[in-house]
Amino acid sequence: MRKFWAWGALIFGMLYFILPLLGMTNFSLKMRRGVYSLDAYAVVLGDPRFQATFTYSILMALATIVFGVLLVVPTAYWVRLKLPGLRPYIEFVTLLPLVIPAIVIVFGYIRLYNTSSWLPLTGSITGTNILLMFGYATLALPYMYRSVDTGLRSIDIATLTEAAQSLGAGWTTILARIILPNVLVAVLSGAFLTFAIVIGEFTMAALLNRPAFGPYMQLLGANRAYEPAALAVMSFALTWGCLGLIQLVSRFQKGAQSAT
User: Does 260 have pLDDT greater than 60?
Assistant: First the structure.
């Protein structure tokens, strides 16, 4: 009886998520009346605004990932190695972006870094892009930190550090050539989640007036019918692609470890 209810709940959950997606996909293929076609997808992909905003968001995602790795990996490593008593406080800080709305964060940025402040980042395009990257890194911090911390938990960082130091390695060498390769799967998991967050984020990009993919999706949804459905399907496929890459990298790493 329990197995029946378990399968019933699983099937209900799958239908709950899959049926709307199938309906949206079906609608996106009906731009040409009477036949199924990819016209809506062709219109979206051929739109210069799509190309510009998608490229911008990809570049911002890559910059955010690099900044997040440089920030989180040394911090999580040092806390685990030298300051284990601070772990609860660090974890609390990294969870704050989950409970503080993005609109509150971005309004705080605008208030602190406007053109009349001591650091007027919003007064230039480059400064605004940097500010937006910091905002994206803040939103992705819970996922990046958790991923890296889980990876560090699976290895003996104290022994690895002592062995490296006994061979004359410095802290930069230890982080870059010993710790990072051992937590690469965890870092990639956090990187893919960061990428998915940046691609779909709307609030910060809109309020900072940057040409990102999230505001473009909202603008297209307010003015078109079939193209927003096609864009939503592509965004959903991109997100699931990132999750699939996480699983693929994890399996590859497990296979490499078992082979050795």
Answer: no
- List CB contacts of 77: < 8 A, sequence separation 6 or more: 152, 157, 175, 179
Q: 74 falls in which pLDDT band (50, 70, 90)?
A: very high
pLDDT for residue 221: 78
Alpha-carbon span 73 to 67, nearest angstrom: 10
Spacing of C-alpha 194 from chain mean position: 2
Range of 140's domain?
47-253
Radius of gyration of the chain (CA): 22
Span 44-69, average pLDDT: 92
Residue 42 inside a domain? The answer is no
Compute CA distances 102 → 57, 71, 92, 138, whole Å.
17, 20, 17, 9
> Could you give the 3-state DSSP secondary structure of residue 201?
coil
The answer to whether residue 179 sits within a structural domain is: yes
Q: At residue 137, does pLDDT exceed 90?
A: yes
Span 206-228, mean pLDDT?
86
Q: What CATH number does residue 130 fall under?
A: 1.10.3720.10
- Residue 148 is assigned to a structural domain of this protein: yes
Contact 190, 68 (CB under 8 A): yes
Give the residue from 202, 199, 201 showing the smallest Cα distance to 237. Answer: 199
C-alpha to C-alpha distances, 195 to 83, 92, 104, 154, nearest whole angstrom = 30, 23, 22, 24
pTM for the model: 0.85
